[in-house]
Design brief:
It is elongated and about 85 Å long. It folds into two domains: 359 residues, no CATH class; 230 residues, Rossmann fold (3-Layer(aba) Sandwich), CATH 3.40.50.1110. By secondary structure, it is mostly helical. The strands form two sheets. It has a five-stranded parallel sheet, sandwiched between helices. A two-stranded antiparallel ribbon has the order 5-7. It has 25 helices and seven strands.
């Protein structure tokens, strides 16, 4: 069959559906909470088309296949990597720019998905500040392209080829179903638990399951399944796992039904086909532009700005398709030249990494702000903060000696407060204990988070044994369920003999990292602000916690009232010009010292009265 005879416009239309889901999800997650399933549909399409090419009559040499993949993938990818790096040079702070360089290197090595696995952890960079995060899916596909032709070649003469494919598919699906419960990030990014989605597409091609008639119902059901998963799923669900069967099987049903009414009239329509043709460059372009827009606008771009960015991404995608992607597909042996060009992009990424994000891009007065990073905060290397190497809760987390005892119990926000609290305690003649764990609010029943329940149980036992005069609770609370559980924890502390319980309220939460917010303000006003009012949370959570403390008869100290004024503008730098927070929420050492200078007297007030 000739390429024109093989061409199916409805598959380009299915690509259009996929890219629409992804772009809408990234633009407005509330509008399409499960739009991420568009990536799963892409996987099925890729598995089907690649396998059909490899199994076409007369076959295709593997070298020819790889050369075609290079011409198909590399040109647009190189353009996006270089432009994203150029914009990042202007916008990103050194830690984020270094991360961008690492992402570029990972992309060049076809390992973006594996690189994202290495970025996991409580203090992992914000996804919304990673312009190349979306390339993880390209990494999964590239790894499939490397190994799948070799596997098919080994199975070419085997009468059990289909059985082997089914077995691999089943094992991959089983791995996904298990990992989505035990290690959800591995289920999402790793190639093995994702392979079954591509293998389903491959199985459709290998078994020649495409039907020429009687498929009207199947095509409609498949499209409905994709739409339903996009509307009803959300990122709180265990995905991919077995839930991914809904959009994946839906995509398979669409592919096997070329003559369905939905395929012929909707997916094969000219607008759908045209959008499908630019789906690859649009996928590459849209996320970096939305990321940079979010950074510039402090995480709160408006509707027109978001769709302006998507319009720019669409125009760039059309230009990329017509002037870069399509001409490269139809030229001769460009694989060596394109490989060198991609390698050059990798060298640029490596240079960004080696130079630690090129901090000298910024004026001298901004360099100290630009280098601020949560990783540099010594508070998070304390042995009684459970994220630190060699950490653990034991009696050594309580200061030795006699005198009144104050214990700090909470999450990473409490850990950020501890060094300044310990320093203030010396002047107040108090001993200080601390029990802090990332993401664990100080409540005895942490629900499904077994790790937090265990660590909090151990902390409570040590607190009860020490019988402190004061217990200070500080965390970012999950307000839906935590307040009722917090009431039970307060009662348990009182029953254990604690004289006074004080809650330190939540700090202001920034939509983007505070150093970014400060430097973005400088770019437009050419002055360093002391306060900012945009891109920061309001007073609702502080008021809620204050009301809870009053009803429970315990002490309450508001960080918001310390850091923000009545106009809801919040301090961003201390009088010594140190940034208040190292990221979106955690106080810097200077920020913690400023706060303790204001609230220390209230915290160390001894006695049982609230």
């Amino acid at each position: 069959m000739t390429p024109s005879e093989n061409y199916r416009p409805d598959i380009d239309g299915l690509r259009a559906v996929s890219i629409l889901l992804v772009v809408l999800y990234h633009a407005h997650p509330w509008l399409l909470p499960g739009g991420f399933v568009g990536v799963d549909v892409f996987f099925v399409i890729s598995g089907f088309l690649i396998t059909r090419i490899l199994l076409s009559p007369g076959g295709m040499p593997i070298s020819t296949f790889y050369a075609r993949r290079i011409r198909r993938i590399f040109p647009a990818l190189i353009a996006v990597l270089l432009v994203t790096a150029a914009i990042g040079w202007v916008i990103l702070l050194p830690p984020q720019f270094r991360l961008l360089g690492e992402n570029i290197v990972a992309s060049v090595l076809f390992a973006s998905n594996l690189f994202q696995l290495g970025q996991l952890g409580y203090f992992a960079p914000l996804a919304a500040e990673n312009p190349l995060l979306h390339l993880w899916s390209l990494g999964v596909e590239e790894q499939f392209y490397i190994f799948w032709p070799l596997a098919l070649g080994l199975l070419a003469r085997s009468p059990r080829r289909r059985l082997y494919i089914l077995g691999a598919l089943a094992l991959s699906l089983a791995a996904s179903a298990v990992l989505v419960v035990t290690h959800s990030d591995w289920a999402f990014y790793a190639p093995v638990p994702r392979a079954w989605e591509l293998l389903i597409g491959g199985l459709l091609a290998e078994a020649n399951l495409v039907r020429k008639c009687g498929s009207h119902l199947l095509g409609g059901i498949g499209l409905a399944a994709i739409a339903a998963s996009a509307l009803l799923f959300d990122r709180a669900m265990p995905f991919p796992g077995l839930l991914a069967l809904v959009p994946v099987v839906g995509a398979a049903l669409v592919i096997v039904s070329p003559n369905a009414v939905t395929n012929r009239l909707l997916l094969s329509s000219r607008p759908a086909v045209l959008l499908g043709l630019i789906s690859y460059p649009l996928y590459l372009w849209h996320w970096p532009l939305l990321t940079y827009l979010g950074i510039i606008r402090h995480g709160v771009p408006n509707f027109l700005e978001i769709w302006g960015a998507i319009l720019v991404a669409t125009v760039l995608s059309i230009l990329t398709f017509h002037f870069i992607e399509w001409p490269m597909r139809n030229r001769g042996n460009l694989a060596p030249s394109l490989s060198i060009a991609l390698g050059t992009a990798g060298v640029i990424g490596a240079a960004i990494v080696i130079t630690a994000g090129v901090p000298w891009r910024f004026p001298q007065e901004l360099q100290a702000i630009a280098r601020v990073s949560t990783d540099d905060n010594p508070a998070f290397r304390d042995r009684c903060f459970l994220e630190a190497p060699g950490s653990g809760f034991d009696a050594g987390c309580i200061g030795p000696g006699g005198g009144p005892l104050l214990v700090l119990w909470g999450d990473s926000n409490a850990a950020a407060l501890y060094p300044a609290l310990a320093q203030a305690a010396q002047h107040a003649s108090f001993r200080v204990g601390r029990f802090t764990a990332p993401g664990c609010a100080p409540i005895l029943d942490a629900g499904p988070n077994a790790g937090c329940t265990a660590s909090n149980g151990k902390a409570f036992g040590l607190i009860a044994a020490a019988r402190p005069d004061i217990v200070v609770l500080h965390a970012m609370w999950g307000f839906d369920n935590d307040l009722e559980k917090l009431g039970g924890t307060v009662t348990a502390l009182r029953n254990a003999g604690v004289l006074r319980v004080v809650i330190v309220g939540p700090p202001p939460v920034w939509k983007r990292t505070l150093p970014h917010a400060i430097i973005n303000h400088y770019r437009f006003s050419h002055e360093l602000p002391d306060r900012l009012g945009s891109g920061v949370s309001g007073p609702a959570e502080d008021e809620l916690m204050s009301g809870f403390a009053r009803s429970a008869g315990i002490g309450y100290v508001s960080l918001r009232k310390v850091l923000c004024d009545i106009r809801q503008e919040c301090l961003v730098r201390t009088p010594e010009r140190e940034v208040i927070a190292t990221d979106t929420i955690h106080l810097s050492p200077g920020g913690a010292r400023l706060v303790l200078g204001v609230i220390g007297g209230e915290l160390f007030r001894a006695g049982g009265a609230p």
